[in-house]
Amino acid sequence: MADDIFKHPRLIAIYDALDPDRSDLDVYAAIAEGLGARRVLDLGCGTGTFALLLANRGFEVIGVDPAGGSLDVARAKPGSNRVHWIHGDAAALPPIQVDLVTMTANVAQAIVDPLDWQGTLHGVYDGLRPGGHFVFETRDPAYRAWREWNRAESYSITEIQGVGSVESWVDVVEVSGPLVRFRWTWVFAADQEVLTSDSTLRFRTRDEVEEALVAAGFALDQVRGAPDRPGRELVFFARRPE
């Protein structure tokens, strides 16, 4: 089930406005071009920002997400007819053969259950053509990013057209082994409504991810750091063997 941030009408309507800088996606677009991909599946596409970026550059794109609210926003954006949108997850994919599957931002970590993670990897493998690539990122647990997830360091006020001022911040609720549960809070100045959304991310080590990829049949080509977040992120480049 999707977190409230991805389904509450008032929250999903301001999702993009609260995170306007998506320059991190330019790196993925360059990767797609560098790999010579023409058909791309964006798994966990959210409100469609990356899927539409690729479509506008001439790629054939499939956007998949389990949150219907996010897909409603994506479908309402200019150019959305260039993307084939699917409501679901990797297990719900139709028979396809794409050149590249991507999971950007927190998508990999939001797949918390080990069986769901295993199922996702197998679904991605089946959806790739032989020789196709799987590129995704995950936070390096060694950095312990959750130490910065508190009101003092995350508080902001955003002016949103047609909505007004929105205060927001995040607080860690619980750290239990590899699982980190946190709560976002938003306060709408127009009527002082307070909304919250709880989320959980799984922080997997590099070894854990590599072992899971190999077990699912992938060949691991390389692991890079994210150029815009040095020391914080691991970017995995896997491939379905020919």
Quick gist of this model?
With 242 residues, this protein is of the alpha/beta class. It has helices at 9-12, 15-18, 24-34, 49-56, 68-75, 107-110, 114-127, 151-154, 206-215; strands spanning 39-43, 60-65, 83-87, 98-103, 128-139, 156-160, 164-176, 179-188, 193-202, 219-225, 233-239. Strand 10 and strand 11 (233-239) form a beta hairpin.
Silhouette: globular
Reported for the largest beta sheet, the result is: 7 strands, mixed
Content-based structural category: alpha/beta
Contiguous low-pLDDT stretches (5 residues minimum) are: none
Instruction: Indicate the proportion of strand residues.
Output: 35-45%
**Number of separate helices:** 9
Radius of gyration: 18 Å
- The helix fraction, in percent, is 25-40%
What is the tally of beta strands?
11
SSE run: HHHEHEHEEHHEHEEEEHEE
Average of per-residue pLDDT values:
96
